[in-house]
Design brief:
The chain is of the alpha+beta class and 246 residues long. It contains eight helices and eight strands, in the order ααβαβαβαββααβββα.
């Protein structure tokens, strides 16, 4: 495998090209009431940011927002133990202290990953399915902005050139997605390179255009009743607009 040539300054360039928000709507308003008042993607209780060590080298020169992550249970110890030698887990001060210019690539792209076909074609972006019961955006893919999708894809294409191991990682991860969804007997929703909905048949890998009815809706984001019950159980406060994008 070719050796990675990526340097801290390369990440600075990637940051400059990946500034678009996922959507014009504040998705954190929907998941925070289920997560102690903090967006699910901004808490290491839910998602542990993993970065290139050289990305952390860049961040240390720009901000004191980030620090090395300290595992707190068996699951997080496993996450750290399984990292490759050029990666590390890091921790930020939390959503209230967010510096948008100093978010990691992982933060900017959440909850999406680059989806590659069996033929290793980068056809679009999929979602990290383990968060589907906590991330409102994953049940509202129709509101993802095209600019975000285009910047996401351009960023990862540039990253793959500089570090082939990243490409291999997502070839393998996409294969894992097909296995998981095949076991679930569910189709994989993707956003294509222009932001259009695509549907993958996981057992064959075949892709077809999606229709409005194919957009996934996962509990507790599948109905107002389920959402309100889940928020109540979590001790949160339902936003006044409920599940509606606002």
């Amino acid at each position: 495998m070719p050796k990675a040539t990526i340097k801290p300054q390369d990440f600075a360039t990637l940051y400059e090209g990946f500034t678009a928000p996922v959507s014009r709507f504040d998705c954190g308003r929907k998941c925070a009431p289920l997560n102690g008042g903090e967006p699910v993607c901004c808490s290491t209780q839910n998602a542990v940011p993993v970065v290139h060590k050289v990305e952390f080298d860049l961040l240390k020169t720009r901000t004191d927002l980030w620090s090395k992550f300290k595992p707190y249970d068996y699951a997080t110890k496993q996450i750290v133990a399984e990292l490759t030698s050029d990666c590390m887990a890091i921790h930020c001060k939390g959503a209230r202290h967010c510096e948008r210019d100093n978010r990691t690539i992982a933060c900017r792209g959440f909850p999406f990953y680059p989806y590659l076909t069996r033929q290793k074609e980068f056809v679009g972006i999929g979602t990290y399915w383990v968060f589907e019961d906590r991330c409102w955006m994953m049940s509202n893919l129709e509101i993802v902005d095209r600019a975000f999708v285009e910047q996401f894809i351009a960023t990862y294409e540039a990253l793959f050139v500089k570090d082939h191991s990243e490409f291999t990682t997502y070839v393998d991860f996409s294969a894992s997605a097909r296995r998981v969804y095949s076991r679930w007997k569910r189709e994989i929703p993707l956003l294509g390179r222009q932001g259009e909905l695509l549907i993958v048949e996981p057992s064959t890998g075949n892709i077809r255009p999606g229709r409005k009815k194919d957009y996934p809706k996962v509990a507790p984001f599948s109905s107002e009743k389920e959402y309100r019950e889940a928020v109540k159980e979590a001790g949160g406060e339902v936003p006044k607009e409920g599940l509606r994008a606002a």
